[in-house]
Design goal:
The protein folds into 2 domains: 60 residues, no CATH class; 35 residues, no CATH class. It has 3 helices and 2 strands. α2 runs antiparallel to α3. The protein has a two-stranded parallel sheet with strand order 1-2. The chain is mainly alpha-helical.
């Protein structure tokens, strides 16, 4: 199960927390009713539905922020890890990726 939201209405809800694997929003205890989360607690009201909580989270700030990964390898680091990268690329059938590393290794070796 992966409900959009669930309420733990038990004496000690915190003791059950590690047993919940998939849930869009989890409300602990009788005072933590769903409208508290929807309107006042600061959590997002847009939750994953139809079991999507197995692989998705509620809508959040990160969904509206563009990020860029920045990778900066040195020649020395590429020399030391290049064979591993080449092996993984070839395992995926991406020979051009493997060659992109090997030609740089060859150029550096000269």
């Amino acid at each position: 199960m992966a409900p959009e939201h669930a309420e733990l209405l038990v004496a000690d809800p915190w003791s059950w927390l590690d047993k919940i694997r998939h849930c869009g929003a989890l409300f602990l205890g009788s005072a933590s009713t769903e409208p508290v989360g929807d309107y006042f607690a600061g959590t997002n009201h847009v939750l994953p539905t139809n079991g999507a909580a197995r692989y998705a989270s509620s809508l959040g700030l990160a969904d509206f922020v563009k990020t860029t990964s920045i990778i900066a390898y040195t020649d020395e680091r590429l020399q030391s890890t290049g064979e591993h990268i080449i092996r993984m690329a070839r395992a995926e059938g991406l020979e051009a990726h493997a060659r992109a590393v090997s030609v740089r290794q060859d150029r550096r070796a000269e």
